[in-house]
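Tutorial, part two.
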Amino acid sequence: MSLDTKQILLLLAGLALLALLIWLLVLMQPLLVALSVAALLAYLLNPPVEQMTKRLGGKRSLAALLVYVLALTLVIGPLSLLIVLLVDRLPLIQEELGKALTVMRGWLTQPFPFFEFVIYPEAVWENLRVAGSNALSSLTLGEGGLLSGITSNLLWAFVVLVSLYYLLKDGHLIAPWLLAHVPSPYQADARHLLGKIDAVWGLFLRVQLFIFAVLAVLVGSSTALILWLFHRGWLPLSPIGLALLLVGMYAAIQQVDNLWLRPQLMGHALKLHPGVIFVGLIAGLALGGLLGALLVVPVLATLKVIARFAFERLSPASGPLTEVVVQPDIPEQTA
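Running the prediction step on this input gives:
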């Protein structure tokens, strides 16, 4: 069937609008990342806000403000304590750094053979010094400079903080607003689907918090053990060797998390194959960075829920909707 001129123009207009939408999404990627982080944190902090709202007699704004301030205090407090401890131990750090630099100078004054070649570290060091001087020249306020990047990150962090407060305060109104725009015959299905999606994300956050706790215990205990053995003299390492050992330990724990812990726990909880989760983590990390790797698993589980729901509703033998274990706080729409 051939297309007339009007249909061709409509098709071209639709493709142009699609291209414009994709371009806008790419352009607004930093904003979308900031809003995604704020939405994830707001979803995580929503249960305490709900509990506080009940205790305050329905004063949601006050409850959101209290939880918001408490969350910021719990984050800023340990960071401030860490900074104070680092400042207090600054002389010891400088002493250890001086010893490390002395060892490095000793290495850089001795040429060493490599197969049939002789490498002179002094020449390599000179090249590194020149490269470092060139890197310092990038500390400009212009576009692409390091200081410009720091300023931009601070601005987006401010966007996250402001968005987080308003999502804690008014985020519970989003689901009813969405349901209000769904035609009445489909509102029951939409409410049921939102309940399933809410259950998936709630389960994901609980498993993610458990994984964070396990990683924190592994990193903390391993670091404390290595430092204790080092100060007791049972690890005959230089400060550089100690730093390399700690970096290797952190890398090993990260690989355990990516290759086994996260795929197994997330796969069991969200009913996804561990191989699918592993591939999704790699793809999310490559395409979206740390945030992409964090969100790709619940996104895959959400797509699975939507696809299964659509199959059940489109199937001729579909029966009544099954109940959801975890229901979101979505009030019924009144006529």
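Residues 187-231 form the longest helix (45 residues). In part three we will examine how such features are distributed along the chain.
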